[in-house]
Amino acid sequence: MVIKMKRVLFFGDSITDAVRSRTEDHVTGYGYPTLVKSNLSYLYPNCYEFFNRGNSGDRIVDLYARIKKDCINLKPDYISILIGVNDEWHEFWQSNGVDSKKYEMVYDLMIGEILKALPDTKIMILEPFILEGEGTCDTPEIPNKYELFKKGVTEKSKAAKTIAKKYNLPFVELQSLFNELAEKNGINCYVLDGVHPTAAGHELIKNEWLKAFNNWIK
């Protein structure tokens, strides 16, 4: 008897990408998707298959542009989405960010289209986060860069939570946990540059991801 494996899709930017393969789906990168995959594959052999469709540099508009190819066409049973930091960072980097109102509007459109196409698919939304690492500190070119960056990411977090509430989706809070652990053990223990997690940071995300997932399957 052939058992149909359920599909798990990770959707997002570089935090999700984590140098995943573009040609081999079993190579899911060094980040939390692989940690989740390892955990679930060990506990539930032959029950799940995993697809990482994180793309480094993506904003919400980039995610929305590829939902057909990288999401709907895969027909996943479970989807997690982590997006928002680049929507703010790209404004500082090349004046090509996405303001918070547009971020919320496009996120809403994206979730609505996914659920219309895949009404039985379960979706969790992960909270975008930021810490004051080397890559987010003030620079002469942009005074108070970190405070501005933090303000924008906080707005994206609130918008993502609003979308989760609208569609009755799990919202996985991450910012407060990163704050708490960074205060206790130091920022560099959990993020490399204020944005990209270390191994410990990815472990944190994995743990919170699994809490939301286990609520679905228990």
Structure report:
- By secondary structure, the chain is α/β, with parallel strands linked by helices.
- The protein has one domain (6-217): Rossmann fold (3-Layer(aba) Sandwich), CATH 3.40.50.1110.
- The chain is 49% helix and 12% strand.
- The chain has helices spanning 14-17, 32-43, 60-65, 67-70, 85-94, 100-117, 145-166, 175-185, 199-217; strands spanning 6-12, 48-54, 78-82, 122-126, 171-172.
- A five-stranded parallel beta sheet has the order 2-1-3-4-5.
- Helix 5 runs antiparallel to helix 7 (145-166).
- It is globular.
- Helix percent band: 40-55%
Mean pLDDT: 94
CATH topology: Rossmann fold
Structural class call reads alpha/beta
Number of domains: 1
SSE string, helix = H, strand = E?
EHHEHHEHHEHEHH
Number of helices: 9
Strand order of the largest sheet: 2-1-3-4-5
Q: Which runs of at least 5 residues are low in confidence (pLDDT < 50)?
A: none
Question: Any guess at the CATH architecture?
Answer: 3-Layer(aba) Sandwich
> Judging from the principal axes of the Cα atoms, what is the shape?
globular
Major pleated sheet: 5 strands, parallel
Tally of DSSP β-strands: 5
Using the CA coordinates, give the radius of gyration: 17 Å
Strand content: 5-15%
Assigned CATH superfamily: SGNH hydrolase
Distance between the termini: 25 Å
CATH class division = Alpha Beta
